[in-house]
Amino acid sequence: MTYKILSNKDVKIFEALGSGIIPGGGQHFEMGARDLSEKWLPRTDYLLSRMNLLSRTGMRFLGKLINIFWPMVYLRQFSQMIHLPEDELVILFHRAESSGTLSSALILLLKVLICPPFYGLKEVKESIDYKEKFPNPKNFEGIKA
Amino acid sequence: MIREFKDIKRDINEHADVLVIGSGAGGAVAAKELAEKGIDVILIEEGSYFTSKNYNQDPNDMMGMMWRDSGTTLALGLPPVSITLGKAIGGTTLINSATCFRTPETVIEKWRKSYGCEGLDYKELLPYFEKVENEISVTELSEDVLGAVYQVVKRGAKALGLSAKPLRHNVKNCEGAGICQFGCPRGAKQSTDVSYIPKAIQAGARIFANCRATKLLTESGRIRGVKGKVIDPSNGKAKHNIHITSKIVCLAMGAMITPAFLLKQRLANTSGQVGKNLTIHPCGRVVAEMEEEVNGHHGVSQGGQIDAFAGEGIMLEGIFLPPGLMTMSLPGVGEDHKYIAKHYKNLAAFGVMVSDTTRGRVFRPLLPGFPFSSWYSLNKTDTGKLKKGIEITAEIFFEAGAKRVFTGCTKMPILNSKEDLEIFKTMPVRAWHFELAAFHPLGTCRFGNDPGESVVDMNLESHDIKGLFIPDGSPFPTSLGVNPQVTIMAFATRTSDYIAESIERY
Question: Measured between alpha carbons, how far is A116 from B341 in angstroms, rounded to an integer?
Fold first, then answer.
């Protein structure tokens, strides 16, 4: 898969971020962000590509900082976030979110790049029983630059 | 016909009587009104031209397509506030909730008495409101289209002795697709791209999309035209040059970009007021998890309002979002997050809009790629209003049978019972505990009769540069307390009348 904006490292970071926020399994619905990363990451890439250069660079840089520092701060581990198993990622994000520090605001910012891309996928909409009131227009021509 | 990037093969060198920059609530109205009076008009717009054939109801795609910077435009401050702006033919009217209010009479009175706007008369504005409402088909929708969230809130409000009323919308044959901010797939919303722009074209206005103004041309205190660039929308790169000469320029880029554009060129700022006095109507949102299935997405996103606290500067208005954005804005990761997503159908949401006394500021762009820089830090008074609005809305939801309520306040993000609400009420909070969004920037080139205190006069013409008009949200000296699109359109219509009457003098 080739991306317009995301590097290979960014892909791993955003995949880990997605897994921490939306892990697979559980009692509510089966699908997790990692299961569908090949489908939602290109959508994240599209959102980033429509931001200005500094915003998207900032977002990617933020991901890199979180990858290195959050495991140290919240799990006391000298390991990059991308190497953590899914259950530890969930603990990591739970601690970050409930820390009451800037980290909780950062999670909100990161969710912008994860939730809309993920929940717009057909299989995810089905798994949460979401259906638009009307189908797309019959003459839908596709999105445009 | 709208000429887009793909149709523009060489530099644009044109002349018109009036050049309009921006195609939102101000620019599109000015272009149509002037063209219909027989004036030669050119309108340029930085964004692309979209139709309902491009709308797929997917917020991810739509935010990337027609929200400026994918919706990440911010005013920095404590807390930072997301300010959503449209970038398309239709401007922000394309991505608003289609809610329509006339300017409250009390606001006009306040401007007249306290903000140097002597001569401004509410009665004089009434024909303009009527005209605008006809053009954009402002109507009251039936209860089923207003959506189930409105019914939930109505029920809760009634129990508290409050009255929830339906909002009026600029729509035709609306069936409540529930996705107003992401392009109406049924073509019901009468944003300016479907209401004013086609009429402007019919009247002879020339419309250019994907064209960014970069420099205002002036000579001896008079406007002479604009230079700019044709932008490739796929990569944002400038391709051709634009040079348009005109006797009059209507700068309608919105209250965030217009002042930054003027400050960058050090123009029209003898008063020192350009960029100051930014008001934004900061908004909090309260989400409730109900016992019953609500299906809030089956109905317009903004159905009802409670105006009982409008006098205190608190307006409660509906708001509902698709799952990607709703889950994004609620707390929780892992199983908690998935629970919320799975119970999306049980969610109801309502917004708290504050008529702000805080004043922010827009600066010239400090970083490359950004059209503006801004600072807005919510003051104590407005923080108190916001908290009170959230408390009232939470109480309404509990009365309506909510299992729990999400406050949008990081100090106590979830209320599980009325007892929790009582604790929340006594809790001291600061501005930065709230997650805020704003949709109505105003005030950054304020109008008034005194050139020392205001940027434009009561006809929205610059005190400094003859022929430069600002018919967007920038001239309004205070927040309105209600959604501003009808106000912007009414004032733009009024300004167009003035221009048409006096064009021979330019």
Answer: 12
On whether the B142-171+283-355+379-433 domain is CATH 3.30.410, my answer is yes
Cβ contact (<8 Å) for B338 and A108?
no
pLDDT mean over B274-290: 97
Interface size A-B, in CB pairs within 8 Å, comes to 169
Phi, psi of B464, deg, nearest 5? -95, -40
CA distance A9 to chain B (A): 22
- Whether the CB-CB separation of B248 and B467 falls below 8 Å is answered with yes
DSSP chain A: ---SS--HHHHHHHHHHHHHHS-S-SSS-S--TTTTHHHHHHHHHHHHHTS-HHHHHHHHHHHHHHHHHHHHHHH---S-GGGS-HHHHHHHHHHHHHT-SHHHHHHHHHHHTTHHHHHTSHHHHHHTT---SSPPPTT------
Which phi and psi (to 5°) does residue B274 adopt?
A: -65, 125
Of chain A, the percentage scoring pLDDT greater than 90 comes to 77
CB nearest to A29's CB, from B175, B186, B342: B342
Range B480-490 average pLDDT: 97
Give the pLDDT mean for B62-68: 96
Q: Between chains, do A137 and B234 touch, taking CB under 8 Å as contact?
A: no
Q: Are B16 and B216 in contact (CB under 8 A)?
A: no
pLDDT band at B367 (very low <50, low <70, confident <90, very high): confident
Contact B396, B304 (CB under 8 A): no
CATH class assigned to B2-62+86-137+182-275+443-505: alpha beta
Taking the Cβ of residue A115 and every Cβ of chain B, the question of whether any pair is shorter than 8 Å is answered with yes
Whole-number Å distance between alpha carbons of B296 and B137 = 24
Confirm or reject contact between A20 and chain B (CB < 8 A): yes
Structural domain boundaries in chain A:
21-127
Helix axes A102-112, A53-75, angle to 10 degrees: 130
Binary contact (A116, B435; C-beta < 8 A): no
The token pair at B465 is: 């540069």
Cα–Cα distance measured from residue B368 to residue B365, given in angstroms and rounded to the nearest whole number: 7
What 3-state class would DSSP assign to B465?
Answer: coil
CA–CA min distance B56, chain A (Å): 6
For this complex, say whether ipTM is above 0.90. yes
Domain boundaries, chain B: 2-62+86-137+182-275+443-505, 142-171+283-355+379-433
The reply to whether residue A27 touches residue B341, judged by beta carbons under 8 angstroms, is: no
Task: Could you list the beta-strand ranges (E) of B325-385.
Answer: 347-354, 361-363, 373-375
| B173 in reach of chain A (CB within 8 A) | no
CA-nearest residue to A91 within chain B is: B334
Looking at the complex, does the CB of residue B178 fall below 8 Å from at least one CB of chain A? yes
Element spanning B337, H or E = helix B335-342
CA distances from B446 to B2, B246, B381 (A): 32, 24, 23
- Chain A: residue whose CA lies nearest to B66: A145
Phi and psi for A68 in degrees, rounded to 5?
-85, -45
Contact A116 B325 (CB under 8 A): yes
